[in-house]
Design a protein that fits this description.
heterodimer; A: mainly alpha; MetI-like fold; 0% strand; B: mainly alpha
Chain lengths: 292, 263
């Protein structure tokens, strides 16, 4: 980052005060609302009960042990990771070509307008966008009509409260992330590189595989991480679109805090989820780097 | 361009259109259904304002909407001021720990909201802050701060520090130089950052959900509760309004902040 050295020679005490005065409030706020709460929750995950009022809480590992003892939690954790992987894959599959078109073939005002149209939903209300799919996927809904119009007499089609409904809703929610991050890294690729490869006789697919994909990898990975992490921890989307099919680790964690009130267990499950996510990223990201 | 090239270009346009359809069809369907008088969403659409009139007399949704706006406005003011101050420090000074402070901006964005939201619930309960609109403001500012700092910092990059130096050498105090030279220059960035902050807060569901107390909630939380309880089409009307507001906000941001890089 570029930075000015206007005040560099001044007495360090004043400089320090200026820095503390400018950054202090923001970081005090972040400490109070993000870092201290996360630490508190980490502490809670080792307690037998919440330390409120007269309740007696002792340090224990049983919340973590519960995860490894009960197959139920492991199955759900796996299910959440599978959901995360599937949604991330579909977002890449549909989002990358879109980002490529925007960055490399569409120019000028069209590009600006289309780009805005793609990221407009990205900033609009996630809950409402998920809700809007219930209008489309429900029996006797728009999708059923469309399918019956294309294939006459297809019959009823109700996707609500199914696994595919959750995937469709999540892909819809997160697709703009992938398009955005891929677009940023694709735009940075010099067009003359691609032209040079083409004029030297490389086929389109070869250019894509050997040149474009490796150079766009940082964007793809950034998008994948931005999608995978929140999808693994999603609970609202499975609840609305999945109904009884929508039990994932995220919904179980939510239950611990809003219905069952077993906060220590919820905290332990949260940190296990976070730990597994980190582990996967630590394995997958270097592998992807090496593969291209 | 070769014949194959034009065919590919055409396929590209069709593909682009398909992606946009996928992104917008559900929203359009929802908006259309909010004007459909049929409670069972029967087609063809029986156009009417029934659900908007019903919404206007639904006190719960109205007060939730007012709460949403209040929380978003307070969040915007606090986050914009605190974030701009931090950006100025990052721009003006090189100091030890600067990298660390910048890295610390990622957790609020990168950790799933489910975990941050539940952690806030636990901690606020523990220290006696409790739940409610004040707790939501605390949480929303934390989520909005990283965006504000990124946007304002981006704008500061195009600012020439010598301008401040010149103002100082002409006798302006540090504060005067900031107020009369630096702030006017970064004003568009601050407006974009403020709109971002408003959008982050206005659209926030997960954090608000965990921090809402019975009877005190924001519009997204109220919409979620209604969906879970078996919704009425009024929710369509409320949702349509919410999505229009957030899209209008982003279009506002786009006016002040160029997306896509090139200037």
């Amino acid at each position: 980052m570029q930075s000015a050295t206007v005040d560099a020679p001044r007495i360090s005490g004043r400089r320090l005060r200026a820095i503390a005065g400018l950054t202090g409030p923001a970081y005090f706020w972040l400490a109070l609302t993000v870092f201290l709460p996360l630490s508190a929750m980490f502490y809670f995950s080792f307690l037998s009960d919440v330390p409120f009022g007269k309740r007696v809480a002792v340090l224990t590992l049983e919340n973590y042990a519960a995860f490894f003892e009960k197959e139920f939690y492991r199955t759900l954790m796996l299910r959440s990771f599978r959901l995360g992987a599937e949604v991330t894959f579909y977002c890449f599959l549909f989002g990358f070509p879109c980002a490529y078109l925007l960055a490399k073939t569409i120019k000028g005002r069209w590009r600006e307008a289309l780009f805005l149209l793609v990221i407009l939903p990205f900033w609009s209300n996630a809950l409402v966008r998920i809700f809007s799919w219930t209008m489309v996927l429900r029996g006797n809904g728009v999708l059923e009509r469309l399918v019956n119009w294309i294939v006459p007499d297809y019959g009823p089609l109700n996707l609500m409260f199914t696994y595919p409904a959750i995937v469709v809703g999540l892909v819809h929610s997160y697709l703009p992330y992938m398009i955005l991050t891929c677009y940023i890294s694709l735009e940075a690729i010099d067009d003359s590189l691609i032209e040079a490869a083409r004029s030297l006789g490389a086929r389109r697919l070869t250019v894509l595989r050997r040149l474009v994909l490796p150079l766009a990898l940082p964007g793809i990975l950034a998008g994948a991480i931005l999608i995978f992490v929140p999808v693994v921890g999603s609970f609202m989307e499975p609840r609305i679109l999945g109904g009884r099919q929508g039990t994932f680790i995220g919904t179980i964690i939510e239950d611990q805090f809003t219905a069952v009130f077993n906060w220590p267990l919820g905290a332990a499950l949260s940190f296990l989820m976070l730990g597994f996510v980190l582990l996967i990223l630590l394995v997958v990201v270097p592998l992807a780097r090496r593969a291209t | 361009m070769s014949r194959r090239g034009t065919a590919l270009a055409r396929a590209g346009r069709v593909y682009m259109a398909a992606v946009l359809l996928f992104l917008y069809v559900p929203i359009v369907v929802m908006a259309v259904m909010s004007f459909n008088a049929s409670k069972l969403y029967r087609l063809p659409v029986d156009w009417s304002f029934t659900w908007y009139t019903a919404l206007a007399s639904n006190d719960k949704l109205i007060s939730a909407g007012l709460n949403s706006v209040w929380v978003a406005v307070v969040t915007t003011v606090i986050a914009t001021i605190l974030g701009t101050a931090a950006s100025l420090a990052f721009f003006r000074y090189d100091f030890r720990g600067k990298r660390l402070l910048q890295i610390l901006l990622f957790p609020p964005i990168a950790i799933p909201w489910l975990i941050i939201g539940t952690a806030m619930l636990v901690f606020f309960f523990w220290i006696g802050v409790g739940r409610g609109l004040h707790a939501m403001v605390l949480g929303h500012v934390a989520l909005a701060l990283p965006y504000v700092i990124v946007v304002v910092t981006a704008r500061l990059r195009s600012f020439d520090p010598h301008l401040e130096e010149a103002a100082r050498s002409l006798g302006a105090s540090s504060w005067q130089a900031t107020r009369r030279v630096t702030l006017p220059w970064i004003a568009p960035g601050m407006v974009a950052a403020a709109l971002f902050a408003f959008a982050v807060s206005f659209d926030q569901f997960v954090i608000s959900y965990f921090l809402s107390s019975p009877g005190v909630s924001t519009l997204p939380v109220e919409i979620y509760t209604s969906i879970r309880k078996g919704f009425t089409p009024e929710i369509n009307a409320a949702s349509t309004i919410v999505i229009l507001v957030s899209m209008a906000l982003l279009l506002g941001v786009a006016r002040f902040y160029r997306f896509g890089g090139e200037r």
